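User: Modeling request: complex.
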Amino acid sequence: MPRVLIVDDAAFMRNMIRDILVKNGFEVVGEAGNGNEAIRLFEEKKPDLVTMDIVMPMKSGIEATREIVGKHPDAQIVMCSALGQETLVMEAMDVGAKDFIVKPFKEDQVLAICRRLAGIA
Amino acid sequence: MDLQKYRKLFLEEARAHLQELDGELVAFERSPDAALLDSLFRHAHSIKGMAASMGYDPVVDIAHALEDLLTQFRDTAHTPSAGTVSLLLAAADALGALVDQVEADTALSPRIDLVARLQAAAGKAQPAVAPAAEPAPPPVAAAPEAPAAAATDTAAPQRLVVRFSALAALPAARAFQVCKLLEPVAVQFDPPVDEIRGGKFKGELRVALRAAADQALLAKVRAVPDVEAVELSSAPAAAAAPAEHDAPLKRLEMPSQIRIDTAVLDRFVDMVGELVTVNNQIRETSRGLFSEELLTTVDALGRITGNLYQQVLQARMVPFSLLAERLPRAVRDLAMQLGKEVQLTVEGNDVELDRSVMENLGDPLMHLVRNALDHGIEPPAERAAAGKPPAAKLKVSARQQESMVAVEIADDGRGIDRKRVIARALERGLLRPGTEHGLSDDEVYDFLFRAGFSTAAAVSNISGRGVGLDVVKSVIENLGGEIQILSTPGRGTTFRLRLPARVAIIPVFLVRAGEQTFGLPIAKVSRARWINRADVQNVGGREAVLVDGRAIPYHTFSRLLGIQESFEEKDEITVFEVERGASSALLSIDAFIEEREVYLKTAPRPLDRVRGLLGLTLVRGEPVFILDPGMMIWNYV
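Assistant: Request completed. Predicted assembly structure:
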């Protein structure tokens, strides 16, 4: 069962992603509300996959991605983007994010991307 | 979490394609050229592709049949008959109706009949004198497939074309993702990565590869979401070869601009409007502090805020072409229906108007065009008898004139018969007999704007749809504009509209002070209260009302304005509570009329200097001042 870390400052979005993933055979090993927590939880849980919001308080998803991938180049991080954050998404891919999903989330696309990054395509 | 979320995008894009399809079909009838045909094909194809991904089968069926028919024209260089163009237009209409059904969320009704007619026409469109050897080529493949399945392992350099779905939410980011994957083996990207980074991307990425791409890498590219097709060719020259056949498929154009929900834009306008107000407050406060430096800084802030406000309003501007695009089709259909010949010319497609003005201008403009075709323009025989060319000229133009836009609808028809208008006015009792001789043309034409006034012998079903020129006039005036008629008997009639190019809409309370009506922006009133006249007390020489144990200063709106009050004889009075920072005040209103949204026009000079006067609007044809209650209370008392 692929182990996922969900990072988003909005509980609403975390719940939404959790519901999709849990229903489809993923295990959510942690949830973080900002970049700092995300880094801490990543070190602690070593998840197979991270869904990472971009704009968050304290530390952004881009910074967190940069730090995580810097230490763990194989980290599988998928950015959660909104329309209008296209430049930020590209910035995140520059620092090592592997893919992105766009809000409003489309269940099959979220699954396809998460499955592929978790190696169960 | 389903396709419904994409419905809005589908609706927007499909409507945009249909709009162009319509205009281009009419143009195609006049001059069938290959570029137009390509463009028509592209619209049909885009609609089909989007509808297919949404599962709107009836849309797919029509778009597909339409595509087939267009393909036949392209392959046979056959000129379409008027009947066929009407069929194509009917298909466009049917697509429009289906899109409406999508929006209304009702079941889509399949149009088997229409599809059959399109298919039959496609069958008939074969060349009249067919080159014996060659039967009509097969229609273009329905969906872009990747003919690259058998990717080679040769070491020869390759070219790769990656096509993305027109529905991709962030197409540039997707293209960027593909660039990242291909970077190690790529020599060149078209468009260049820097442009993609800047958000410039239109659905197709061409890549020159250093060597043959391996299958695993290609599989990764295909797995990127929104990638629709990956095509590979080993020789660079060959890349251009299939272009002719596929050309319309390749250019699935995505607009280069970002879409913003208009509601978001309206919120921007509101917020920046607030910013302007706050800035004015800071300026007032800083005046009392006698600090040169502070004043300079506040002035700079004021300029920036002012510019920001202008920019935000600018973002609401849309080109006149949005309306003008609808005209060729409407004029064509009407002319056919009325048996008239009309050559339409449109000028000023680039002239910009505020979105709300444009939205409201649509119906009046269409009405005036109908009016011109129905009443102004003569049948060809009558024109010929008058020594005019049988085809009438109708010109619709938009022109920027400082802060206004002049829109003209000019025909070279029979002109307005002054005598008939006067006769009708006398008959309807709008004019006293004997007073008609000194009337100016403007005064005579003004009768045409009276409700129910029509000089047409019989009310036709074209112009006589219950909407008259009176409605046109009131819509234009409510927008802060004006309308004028110029006419020369036998030479034609021009309707001249002048509209404000930019306006802001704000919700206001319309209130009465004395005999006059004023508007107070709802955003500047924190709450309404009803108090008894007896509650107003004298506290330290000033009037105040005790609310929750707190004495709140009390002012009378009409007295602030120096207008005689006109209170009704009752004890309960309406007061608005207005806040500024920590302080608040009550403002009593003579009478509350209603709440409504108004178009706020900047007051003309020198009134624009009056503090607290936010602007002007027209309510039922009368100008109404929109005032800032806070400014009145704290800056004038």
